[in-house]
Amino acid sequence: MPLKSNFKADLTKEKRLSSLLDSYYQKHLRFYDFKRIHALKQQLMGIDLVLKHKTSLQTFFVDEKAQLDYINETLPTFAFELCYLKNGIEKPGWLFDSSKVSHFYALVTSIFSDEDETYTSCNITFVNRQKLISYFAKRGLTQAFLKEIISANADLHGKLLLDNLDPKTEGYLFFSRKNKAENPVNLILKLEFLCRIGVAREFI
Fold it and tell me: What is the pTM of this model?
């Protein structure tokens, strides 16, 4: 039986979640004005939200990533997509995709729902995309290196430990070859680790 893609279902969930996120932004973004982006073309470029500083007028593009498969659960990690399949062709995941213009990721975790189709609370962690990529490059975890690892393990399903990362406190690779239609390969990273190395901070 072919695996079913959850892409359309996820989009519906994301729309419901966005109202909760907007309420948090309105309450906690003291120094920024924000604008939610609905145009698909911009969303595909990694822009879900535009932040503009109220005094300097600096503008930042934010790509929201939510753990929508884990409602009413609290996980210590987040999956950063390295690659996936589309129509049988491997595509770059959002972390290294050069077509994405995101400055920050807003990682939405601990999403709770007290009633059907309504999200009531969540946590948000902001990650500086360029700082994250630069940090991993210094650790030898470049896009080219990770691509080689992925190619060398084309048939693997499950966890793969990396010499460059402590799997208990930092992260590891995970291959979803058997349970997801898109066959994604993700870099699973500890949220606490991202904050500790200075590339992320908890927003709420």
Answer: 0.91
